[in-house]
């Protein structure tokens, strides 16, 4: 079986479809007051920065004078972003407000502005959308309980995966692989049949919800006498928001947690995975513990996903073989297709 690359036209179709949604570009903690950093989203280079009043901005990362990266510049005491090459200064709306080489009283040309993108800051993340249309197709994907009293959320260190974002998402929603690749954490090698109890695709094709009961391995619990490892009954609630966000709420023995992901395509085949993990404060789980545990879970997923072929998730439902326990992924594929993500055939016999 030969795999052919997707055409440049389908790249554009993918970017156009994704550009209508709010997507994350940085963690809030990584852009402090006076800070700036480069980000890449849908093959566009962006600079994310924050002025002295705490206002965050997302601009094209390209000084219109000579194409220098603004992310290599500095945020001035006056709250502008100064280009590192000749010091032109931009305000948060992208307007150039100072050209040091011009004589005082010389008017700055009105063309002197870089594209400024809409910004929101929620769930410890900075979000934008790139379509340029006034209204994005959907609102931010909600992180449940993020602001709920008694909950603590750790916004995790983002990681870059070499894969199409849709493949990453489908893996996050796949319930049939726990006992195989997660047997060293929560996966129970004795329970290989995991079937979602209910899968609901919302009528507007923006969400998928599912309930999944599972007898998970408890790597931190004490095994019963004679048992090799401890187990715990879990009820997982899965929620997917088209196109690249999802969360899982796991309820065990009266305790619960939320794992939220908001993945962002840097390009058609590069993904930044932003995530947050929430637990009730009384469980006193530290950020370091959360990073360790979640990275141990993400690592084997990443290994599998980065190797999947074709790289593009096939939205043609006759491609690949779907069984009953794959029904969440089927819902995801239907919704992505409905929202204009390209159906690309990459397999050639
Ligand atoms: S290239 Fe940015 S000021 Fe000249
Ligand atoms: Fe997994």
Please render the helix and strand layout as text.
Blueprint: E1 2-3, H1 8-18, E2 23-27, E3 36-41, E4 44-50, E5 56-60, E6 74-75, E7 81-82, E8 89-90, E9 96-98, E10 116-117, E11 120-122, E12 125-128, E13 151-155, E14 159-161, H2 165-172, H3 178-181, E15 198-201, E16 207-218, E17 230-241, E18 245-252, E19 255-267, E20 270-280, H4 287-307, H5 327-338, E21 347-348
Antiparallel strand pairs: 1-21, 2-12, 3-4, 4-5, 5-10, 6-7, 7-8, 8-9, 11-12, 13-20, 14-20, 15-16, 16-17, 17-18, 18-19, 19-20
The structure holds FE2/S2 (inorganic) cluster and fe (ii) ion (FE2).
Residues 63, 65-66, 68, 83, 85-86, 88 line the site of FE2/S2 (inorganic) cluster (FES).
What structural category do the secondary elements indicate?
A: alpha+beta
How many structural domains can be distinguished in the coordinates?
Answer: 2
CATH architecture of the largest domain: Alpha-Beta Complex
CATH top level assignment of the largest domain: Alpha Beta
Mean pLDDT: 95
Instruction: Give the termini separation.
Output: 5 Å
Overall 3D shape: globular
CATH topology of the largest domain: Naphthalene 1,2-dioxygenase Alpha Subunit, Chain A, domain 1
Structure description:
This protein is α+β, with helices and mostly antiparallel strands and 349 residues long. The chain is 16% helix and 32% strand. It has two domains: 24-128, Rieske [2Fe-2S] iron-sulphur domain (Rieske Iron-sulfur Protein), CATH 2.102.10.10; 151-347, Naphthalene 1,2-dioxygenase Alpha Subunit, Chain A, domain 1, CATH 3.90.380.10. The protein contains five helices and 21 strands. Strand 8 and strand 9 (96-98) form a beta hairpin. The longest helix is centred in the last third of the chain and has 21 residues, at 287-307. The N and C termini lie close together (5 Å). The structure holds FE2/S2 (inorganic) cluster and fe (ii) ion. Fe (ii) ion binds next to loops.
């Amino acid at each position: 079986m030969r795999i052919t690359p997707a055409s440049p036209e389908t790249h554009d179709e993918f970017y156009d479809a994704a550009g209508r949604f709010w997507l994350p570009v940085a963690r809030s903690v990584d852009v402090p007051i006076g800070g700036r950093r480069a980000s890449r989203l849908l093959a566009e280079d962006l600079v994310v920065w924050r002025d002295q009043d705490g206002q965050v901005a997302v601009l094209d990362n390209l000084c219109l004078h000579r194409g220098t990266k603004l992310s290599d510049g500095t945020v001035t005491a006056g709250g502008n972003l100064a280009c590192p090459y000749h010091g032109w200064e931009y305000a948060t709306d992208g307007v150039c407000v100072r050209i040091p080489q011009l004589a005082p009283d010389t008017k700055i040309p009105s063309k002197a502005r870089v594209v400024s993108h809409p910004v929101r800051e929620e769930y410890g993340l900075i979000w934008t959308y790139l379509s340029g249309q006034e209204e994005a197709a959907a609102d931010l994907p909600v992180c449940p309980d993020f602001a709920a009293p008694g909950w603590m959320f750790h916004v995790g260190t983002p990681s870059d995966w070499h894969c199409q974002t849709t493949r990453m998402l489908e893996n996050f929603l796949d319930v049939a692989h726990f006992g195989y690749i997660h047997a060293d954490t929560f996966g129970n090698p004795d329970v290989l049949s995991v079937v979602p109890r209910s899968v609901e695709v919302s009528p507007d094709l923006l969400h998928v919800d599912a309930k999944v009961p599972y007898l998970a391995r408890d790597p931190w619990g004490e095994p019963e006498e004679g048992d090799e490892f401890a187990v715990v009954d879990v009820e997982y609630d899965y929620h997917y928001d088209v196109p690249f966000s999802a969360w899982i709420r796991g309820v065990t023995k009266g305790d619960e947690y939320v794992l939220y992901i908001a993945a962002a395509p840097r390009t058609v085949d590069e993904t930044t995975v932003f995530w947050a993990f929430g637990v009730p404060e009384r469980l006193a789980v530290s950020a370091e513990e959360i990073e360790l545990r979640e990275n141990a879970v993400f690592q084997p997923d990443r290994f599998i996903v980065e190797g999947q072929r074709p790289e593009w998730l096939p939205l043609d439902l006759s491609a690949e073989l779907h069984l009953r326990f794959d029904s969440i992924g089927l819902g995801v594929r239907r919704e992505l297709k409905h929202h204009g993500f390209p159906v690309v055939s990459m397999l050639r016999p």
